[in-house]
Amino acid sequence: MGTPIEDQQLDAVFMSLADRTRRDIVARLTAGEATVKELAEPYAMSMQAVSQHIRVLERSGLISRGRYRQTRPCRLEPAVLEAAVSWIEESRRMWSERMDRLETHLARLQKRENQ
């Protein structure tokens, strides 16, 4: 089990990724930095709405914003995403082991019944 801070960050990451638009923004940022205007282009929503999505992603730590001249490009923070992937993989491994043990137990019970 993680520390409370790690758990809070995972909660924020998964809450952020629960929205399709935010997942799309994260996917777009895997190709490199982009401005809010560039991130807003594919959506039929206001810049303010896109900015709100970006703020949610920033609060979760998934993205950060830098400064380049007069723009503030957004960039993906892969370490935060990797922490979420690590948690998912650990959970998958744990459940896989549990299912393997259950399968073994059920096979033993079936073998006893057939004897």
Structural features, described:
The chain has helices at residues 4-17, 20-29, 36-40, 47-60, 78-114, and strands at residues 63-65, 74-76. The protein starts with a helix and ends with a helix. It contains 5 helices and 2 strands. Strands 1-2 form a two-stranded antiparallel ribbon. 70% of the residues lie in helices and 5% in strands. It has a domain at 4-82: Arc Repressor Mutant, subunit A, CATH 1.10.10.10. The protein has 115 residues and is mostly helical.
Itemize the secondary structure elements and their pairings.
Layout: H1 4-17, H2 20-29, H3 36-40, H4 47-60, E1 63-65, E2 74-76, H5 78-114
Antiparallel strand pairs: 1-2
Helix pairs in contact: 1-4, 1-5, 2-4
- Assigned CATH class of the domain at 4-82: Mainly Alpha
- The helix content is 55-70%
- The rough form would be described as elongated
Count up the helices: 5
Q: Within the CATH hierarchy, at the fold level, what is the topology of the domain at 4-82?
A: Arc Repressor Mutant, subunit A
The assembly state of the depicted protein chains is single chain
Work out the radius of gyration: 21 Å
Strand arrangement within the widest β-sheet reads: 1-2
Low-confidence stretches: none
Taking all residues together, what is the mean pLDDT?
90
Number of DSSP strand runs: 2
Second rung of CATH, namely the architecture of the domain at 4-82: Orthogonal Bundle
CATH-assigned homologous superfamily of the domain at 4-82: Winged helix-like DNA-binding domain superfamily/Winged helix DNA-binding domain
Q: How much strand content do the residues show?
A: 5-15%
Distance between the termini: 42 Å
